[in-house]
Amino acid sequence: MVRTLLLVWLINALALLALPYVVPSVHVDSFATALVAALLLGLVNSLIRPLLVLLTLPVTIVTLGLFVFVINALCFWFVASFVKGFAVGGFWAAFFGAIVYALISWVVSHLVFGPPRVVRRDL
């Protein structure tokens, strides 16, 4: 389990390093910066993001779930404001950066871990 967690952290850091090639307004200085930013993104996404989703649930329902993209962008931008060497050039850069970051991370995780296994128990 710890090995899987470390591997996911490494995949997310590598996704952050690849991000400036796709979204030029995002800047990552080094691999160490990417590791710190990936760790903080994981913490923010697991601790703060659920609270934000809950607080903005009426807006999310009215927008048919699209407001979650705004929450993701704000969390991405928030982390960039704390990590030295990780810069985002504004809201739209954070918006597209968060989407591309999630896609890169998902694709690489899928390649490394394979499709999710479904355990079926018949009674």
Uncertain segments of ≥5 residues (pLDDT<50)? none
- By DSSP (H or I, 4+ residues per run), the number of helices equals 6
Main-sheet strand order equals 1-2
Number of strands: 2
Portion of residues in helices?
Answer: over 70%
Strand content: under 5%
Put the structure in a nutshell.
73% of the residues lie in helices and 5% in strands.
Structural key phrases:
globular; 6 helices; mainly alpha; two-stranded antiparallel sheet; 123 residues
Provide an overview of this structure.
The chain is mainly alpha-helical and 123 residues long. Helices cover 73% and strands 5% of the residues. It contains 6 helices and 2 strands, in the order αβααααβα. It has helices at residues 2-22, 31-47, 49-55, 57-62, 67-82, 91-113, and strands at 26-28, 86-88. Helix 1 crosses helix 2, helix 1 (2-22) packs across helix 6 and helix 2 packs across helix 5 (67-82).
Q: Mind sketching the topology for me?
A:
Layout: H1 2-22, E1 26-28, H2 31-47, H3 49-55, H4 57-62, H5 67-82, E2 86-88, H6 91-113
Antiparallel strand pairs: 1-2
Helix pairs in contact: 1-2, 1-6, 2-5, 5-6
